[in-house]
Amino acid sequence: MADTKKTIRLEIITPDASVFRGEVDFVLVRALDGDLGIMPSHAPLLASLQIWPLSCMIENHKKNLFVSGGFLEVNSNTVTIVTLAAELADQIDIKRAEEAKKRAENRLYRQAADLDVERAQLALHRALGRIKTVRISK
């Protein structure tokens, strides 16, 4: 008989802290090969995540978090996300994120001889992800 639980446990873990832990109705993340929607009783799954906002529904209320890539595992009605950085939308300093975006864009535009392009692109993606997380939360 199929498991008919109405919620799924979501745990978002960084090296420094457990950013979120609780029961949710639905999780939406961006994996390397596209968006994944995860509902209660989802089949086991492993996926690599992109730098992008994560959305979850909790009793018909949408909650958004910024996730800086990482990995997702679905097992035993639990979604576990391990990432280097994650922030709740209301904890993101939008002004700081916009300044980080400008700095990264300037570095990429100037193309200095000692520029670490991959690092600058990652900084830009993180800033854009934080900005998007705040914007979709309004």
Structure characterization notes:
With 138 residues, the chain is α+β, with helices and mostly antiparallel strands. It has two domains: 8-89, F0F1 ATP synthase delta/epsilon subunit, N-terminal (ATP Synthase, domain 1), CATH 2.60.15; 92-136, Up-down Bundle (Single alpha-helices involved in coiled-coils or other helix-helix interfaces). It is 27% helix and 44% strand. It has two helices and eight strands; from the N terminus they run ββββββββαα. It has helices spanning 94-110, 117-136; strands at residues 8-13, 18-24, 26-31, 34-38, 45-58, 61-75, 78-82, 86-88. Strands 1, 2, 3, 4, 5, 6, 7 and 8 form an eight-stranded mixed β-sheet that branches. Strand 6 (61-75) and strand 7 (78-82) form a beta hairpin. Helix 1 (94-110) runs antiparallel to helix 2. The longest helix is centred in the C-terminal third of the chain and has 20 residues, at 117-136. It is elongated, with a radius of gyration of 16 Å. The N and C termini lie far apart (41 Å).
Largest β sheet strand count, sense and barrel closure: 8 strands, mixed
| Overall domain count | 2
Structural class: alpha+beta
CATH topology of the largest domain: ATP Synthase, domain 1
Outline the low-pLDDT stretches: none
In CATH, the homologous superfamily of the largest domain goes by the name F0F1 ATP synthase delta/epsilon subunit, N-terminal
Termini distance?
A: 41 Å
Helix content: 25-40%
By DSSP, the count of extended strands is 8
Tell the overall outline.
Answer: elongated
H/E element order: EEEEEEEEHH
Number of helical segments with 4 or more residues: 2
CATH architecture type of the largest domain: Sandwich
